[in-house]
Amino acid sequence: MTDFKAPVSDINFLVNDVFKFEQHYKTFPAYEEATPDLVDAIVEECAKFCENELAPLNHSGDKEGCSFDNGEVTTPSGFKDAYQQYIEAGWQGLAHPTEYGGQGLPVSLGLIKSELVGTANWSFGMYPGLSLGAMNTILEHGSDEQKNIYMPKLTEGTWSGTMCLTEAQCGTDLGQIRTKAEPNDDGSYSITGSKIFISAGEHDLTENIIHIVLARLPNAPKGTRGISLFIVPKFLINEDNSIGERNPVVCGSIEDKMGIKASATAVLNFDGAKGYLIGPENKGLECMFTFMNTARIGTAIQGVAASELGYQTSLAYAKDRMSMRSLSGKKAPDQIADPIIHHPDVRRMLLTQKAIVEGGRAMTYYAAKIADEMDQASCPEQKEAADNKLGFLTPILKAFLTELGNESASHAIQVFGGHGYIKEWGLEQNARDVRISSLYEGTTGIQALDLVGRKILLDRAQLFKAFSIEILAFCKDHSMISGNPQKKRMHKFIWQLSKEVANWQRHTVSLMLKARKDRDFVGSCSVDYLMYSGYIFMAYMWAMMAQSANENLTAGKGDKNFNKAKVRTAEFYFDRIFPRVKTLTNTMMSDANSLMKIEIDQF
Amino acid sequence: MTDFKAPVSDINFLVNDVFKFEQHYKTFPAYEEATPDLVDAIVEECAKFCENELAPLNHSGDKEGCSFDNGEVTTPSGFKDAYQQYIEAGWQGLAHPTEYGGQGLPVSLGLIKSELVGTANWSFGMYPGLSLGAMNTILEHGSDEQKNIYMPKLTEGTWSGTMCLTEAQCGTDLGQIRTKAEPNDDGSYSITGSKIFISAGEHDLTENIIHIVLARLPNAPKGTRGISLFIVPKFLINEDNSIGERNPVVCGSIEDKMGIKASATAVLNFDGAKGYLIGPENKGLECMFTFMNTARIGTAIQGVAASELGYQTSLAYAKDRMSMRSLSGKKAPDQIADPIIHHPDVRRMLLTQKAIVEGGRAMTYYAAKIADEMDQASCPEQKEAADNKLGFLTPILKAFLTELGNESASHAIQVFGGHGYIKEWGLEQNARDVRISSLYEGTTGIQALDLVGRKILLDRAQLFKAFSIEILAFCKDHSMISGNPQKKRMHKFIWQLSKEVANWQRHTVSLMLKARKDRDFVGSCSVDYLMYSGYIFMAYMWAMMAQSANENLTAGKGDKNFNKAKVRTAEFYFDRIFPRVKTLTNTMMSDANSLMKIEIDQF
């Protein structure tokens, strides 16, 4: 297996050259401390920790997996120690409030940390990652008392948290939830039911686990409008904040699954466990959704992480492995054959990965800036605006990047030929690990319905319009019309991008009209429309990156090869990946009949 | 896990209605016995065996895997017994000569058997499957003495065979092979070297294993022109044909791999093992290639098999699992939610699988008929013609169907949502198992180079021309111009197909011209061109199937729902899958520069 190297230059290029985080952070008083030097130091430090401590446990963690014995889960060797180091270095509270012991640094920096941790070892990252979900829920909806009880320990990382939504009969359709919450005399509730697929639901890394649980109050309305949110700690907390008695929430088993084997996926049985209402009664789902966007960007990152890991490994192999001669003449005449990186089709597979990982990373950093804006909004209107924009981009990020992450991981295997199928290289693990990403946190189909149903149709495409206009404005700024001869280099990108954004606008209007006449069309076009939107978003990022790299080249700034590589990868993207829109625009506008006319007994 | 049901109606539809095997078999005297009744009985019997004996071992075989101990390999529980039943029923010799104890039935029927066996349990099918490779080599290139020694036992199945090509430093580039063959005084050879990735290289199913080994004679020319082929039995054979002493070819280990875990992939160490030259000296590679086409169709079938298995399982789940309400109104008002098969995007995923499995199966049966023609050719010219046609189609079948098999297996998981990631449903195994198919027997990239380099450029597109003209002739026969009003139903298919075949011709000419100027273009266009060709081939098959189904509907023949389903799936294919050619025609003609210009240190 190749040693993982954190992609620090790529991160710095986005942070400094493309998205100019320095200026961005300066607009928020609370981010004052996030100076370029500090950001640099944090990225470096995190990179080192991930390379040295987490990456070496990735393959062994898969091999060993978690073990389950009588309600207790043991994580693979080395995880406990690595987690201890992780919390001692303060990584868990990096982007959380200082009043609870966090470092109060930008949300975007927290996402960069998650990316690095997740690339080195996605299974490990699930434990602190799920905890962030619980922390955000408590921060957003908890009472001051609840925050004071739970936030310090969660921020410190000595406790962790989970999100308990899914039950055996429902994952997407949470209205079917059956777990009950009966009020106790002391104001607490008695939670009874069974939850499945609870990531980090039970493990040996922390002294307590704080479950956030969806359940129904007695006489709650049916469906999604009768679900409330509860805090259910594994161990109850005494009045002096010390750990108290064991709460009857017990892990019944852990799942035997395709990948992320070092991440425990628990069945949790609540047998009258004591819980505390968080947020208003029957508003549990709304509360959950308030930070769903950030959680989903967290999952989108898995696509980027898997692409990065696969790319690094397959690139090293392609430089090393010798097979056949280059079609255009010997490249390594002294050797028995040429390194396979000289073969055009191997390059196609490598560049596809490179385009996906770097384009995908840019998409998440673009979104991370908006997450900062939301976090630091100075008024509710600003917050809502940022939330809405993020809400429009989130389903695209989540579904598109995880689908492409799967594709990318498969290319990495393919570069290795038969060797890619063997466990020791780690690439088959990478492909197995990333396969979950388009399933959990809302499948690709669900993201697509969210995009088309809520973010386009319900919104009457206002958010779409704003985003597409933003891209056109970028195109205008960098088009040749602006008179700057240096823009010539950008011409081919700008031309293709602006043309396709115009198509995107046209198709979106047609889609809205067609959806009015046929509700099934909403579902039949949705995934193709989402992927189509994703390729445009990624094209926008590649045009931005090409622009920054060209600027650097003109100014003689930075590593010349690095900047040239960015421009060439942008060329590759526009030549070989972006044309996927040609098929998608065709299939997505195709009539729903070809899906709906066939009878169930004809399948 | 859903119980596997052999797709007998689909097979019969192809055998009887689309490809009319009865008439086809009648043209060959040796296939006289293959009457419709016999074919029917064999398919039924094979289906039963696969459903009852092989399918139940598929999941347990994956879980248990093969075990290795001191040179010996133990297959998973039940495999030995199932293999015994397999050979006792005479399945191994189904399509092999009666003079060696086979049943002498058509090659195409042998491929249908391989499909059924492989769909029920691909790992199991690898053992007899590899043996077929060894049998065909000996039949084609062995001396009469060699045939008499090895063929009866191999045909019976009490011995099995392997193909030993790959070494650690080379798989594709066999010119790098280092295994040596030193002549002994008795006319045999002493084989020394190490082979890897030997499927069925060691196991406990048969009393002997006959290895076909690529090795170099002393002073052999360098590269591929200095490779010879040897028979190396695990146990030497005494003069009275009884099993003799152990030959020093020893299994050093078996691979720990992503899938097909019940199929042992051996490292074989030859330590002066006794071997017998088969075929002429230094012509080993040519000998191997004589039946490569059939072997590669065997691998193409893995794509179909995985698609069938995934489709069956996900279809059953989609009818059963209830989640959300249909966008166009409640479909199961008495239930808490609608079965997910009512959701357009779930239908899209199911129909994509259905289109791939049924279209892919048709492609392999189309090729199987040509394999019969080759097998039964009455003169060398006929044989060469069939071999050439098969040679043109083989890389398309192998690469296209295995790539689509991977896609299909992933859709099956996706239909299940998070549950698809859990081992118990068997879908993650299906995805892991099929992943090998685009890697072994020549990767997708290698198939694509074979297609563009050998079958288009070297051949000056003569085979291409013949095949594309055949499709156009079909289009003409079924176009509205022919005056038959019944043809109207076929119009939309014929129109799209003939238009795209014309494009295919045009693009192929452009490709040939472009390849002359830039050798790297051959590699840069190859995979996209292969996939493009695959979608056209599959469209041809869907048009043929729609035509047969329409005929049946008009004649009131067969199950109405079945025939309607064929027409609707054809509609789906042409609406939603075939438009993939739009992207491919764009990317494949794109300049090689976008791949070649980037420097190695810029990756």
TrEMBL record, chains A, B:
> Which UniProt keywords are listed?
FAD, Flavoprotein, Oxidoreductase
Taxonomic source organism = Thalassotalea algicola
Q: Which domain of life is it from?
A: Bacteria
Annotated ranges, domain Acyl-CoA dehydrogenase/oxidase C-terminal? 282-450
- Residue ranges constituting the Acyl-CoA oxidase/dehydrogenase middle domain according to the UniProt record: 163-271
* Protein's recorded name: 3-methylmercaptopropionyl-CoA dehydrogenase
The entry assigns this protein to a family as follows:
Belongs to the acyl-CoA dehydrogenase family.
- Function according to Swiss-Prot or TrEMBL: Involved in the assimilation of dimethylsulphoniopropionate (DMSP), an important compound in the fixation of carbon in marine phytoplankton, by mediating the conversion of 3-(methylthio)propanoyl-CoA (MMPA-CoA) to 3-(methylthio)acryloyl-CoA (MTA-CoA).
Its Enzyme Commission number(s) read 1.3.99.41
An example Pfam family from this entry, by short name, is: Acyl-CoA_dh_M
Annotated Acetyl-CoA dehydrogenase-like C-terminal domain residues: 470-598
The cofactor named in the record is: FAD
Question: What residues does the Acyl-CoA dehydrogenase/oxidase N-terminal domain cover?
Answer: 41-157
Catalytic activity entry: 3-(methylsulfanyl)propanoyl-CoA + oxidized [electron-transfer flavoprotein] + H(+) = 3-(methylsulfanyl)acryloyl-CoA + reduced [electron-transfer flavoprotein]
Q: Name one GO molecular function term.
A: oxidoreductase activity, acting on the CH-CH group of donors
